[in-house]
Amino acid sequence: MLPVSDPVAIVTDGACGIGRELARGLADRGFAVVIVYLRDPERAEAAVEQILASGGTAVSVRADVTDEVDVERLFYETDAAFGAVDVIGHTAVRGANLVYRFAARKLRRGGAILSLAGSEPMLPDVEAGLRDQEITVNGMPPGVAPPGAGHDGGGLLALLDQWRTGG
After folding, report:
1. Name one Pfam family in it (predicted).
2. Band of pLDDT at residue 81, cut at 50, 70 and 90
3. Looking at beta carbons, which pairs linking 66-74 to residues 24 or more positions away fall under 8 Å?
């Protein structure tokens, strides 16, 4: 974990549900947030507006996280808007392989991957591949949350807080 002055996060499926709560929590912690959506631009813009209204920084990007060209474009657009990515919150049900593969090349040294969804079995392999870059990889199966975290993105935010404080 390295301190970053202007941290940047990508949240897949960040327009609704746990992804939206995670995006909002990241923005509350000072991150510029890229909300990734596939089908509902109005919902994505509403999530962006919610963050902007509370003083945060956010944009939305339409990307299919199962499409390599879209994932590459997502990282390119994020870098163009805010700079290097520090955290990836992967809450989409699919697309983990591509997102993690690009994360290995694009995530800032000392960054973090926070994963929900069904990708937990692959996380040890992902973590081993990113160890040299000091990237922390944390996962939480759907429906599991640390005590008191609830089921609204708080579990992933608790993992993020541990990463940021080194605890």
Report:
1. adh_short
2. very high
3. 66/94, 66/95, 66/98, 67/98, 68/98, 71/95, 71/98, 71/99, 71/102, 72/102, 74/10, 74/34, 74/36, 74/102
DSSP reduced 3-state for 167? coil
- pTM, rounded to two decimals: 0.81
pLDDT at 105: 85
**Locus of tokens 């746990």:** 18
We report the CATH number of the domain holding residue 14 as 3.40.50.720
What lies within 8 Å, CB to CB, of 159 at 6+ separation is 112, 114, 138, 140
How many distinct structural domains can be found in the chain? 1
Cα gap 128→158, rounded to integer Å:
22
- Residue 2 belongs to a domain: no
Q: Tell me how far the alpha carbon of residue 115 is from its chain's centroid.
A: 8
